[in-house]
Design goal:
It contains three helices and nine strands, in the order αβαββββαββββ. A nine-stranded antiparallel beta sheet has the order 1-2-3-4-5-6-7-8-9. The radius of gyration is 18 Å and the shape is globular. The chain starts with a helix and ends with a strand. By secondary structure, it is an alpha+beta fold.
Length: about 140
């Protein structure tokens, strides 16, 4: 019985790990991700694009030569935009969040934004981290 369990674990875990960190051409990413990159990061050279995750839960990571990083879900919707050395494109920051940051933290740059169904995390170049809920209300603020 133990042998059957071990064999099943090996058989089912090997294919699940087969796609982790697989380098792919940008053309193999979902169309939505390609369009996002063309619209907001045109002219930037991609250093590496990777497909990660299992068959039913894939993500795509892109790193540009300038160090900027993007993460997309399996459908090509952005999950994270990390522009440590530049700024997150203003057009992708929800207007209520952009307004809040402009009013409370004038002169700062948004260098990272991450989102999921429940929250949006924003990191500013002054070391401030802000977390907003899905209604764009501030729920947490941390300073370095």
């Amino acid at each position: 019985n133990w042998l059957i369990i071990v064999v099943c674990l090996v058989v089912f875990s090997v294919p699940a790990k087969a796609d982790d960190g697989k380098v792919i051409p940008v053309s193999k990413m979902p169309q939505t991700a390609q369009e996002f990159m063309a619209k907001y990061f045109s002219g930037m050279e991609v250093a590496v694009a990777e497909q990660e995750g299992m068959f039913w839960e894939k993500t795509y990571d892109v790193t540009f030569n300038n160090g900027n990083k993007l993460e997309f879900d399996g459908n090509g919707k952005w999950k994270s935009v990390d522009c440590k050395y530049t700024s997150v494109p203003k057009e992708i920051v929800p207007a209520p969040i952009a307004g809040y940051i402009k009013g409370k933290f004038p002169g700062t740059r948004i260098i990272k934004i991450e989102k999921d169904d429940r929250r949006i995390d924003v990191e500013l170049d002054n070391g401030t981290d802000l977390e907003f809920n899905s209604a764009f209300e501030l729920v947490e603020l941390d300073r370095e």
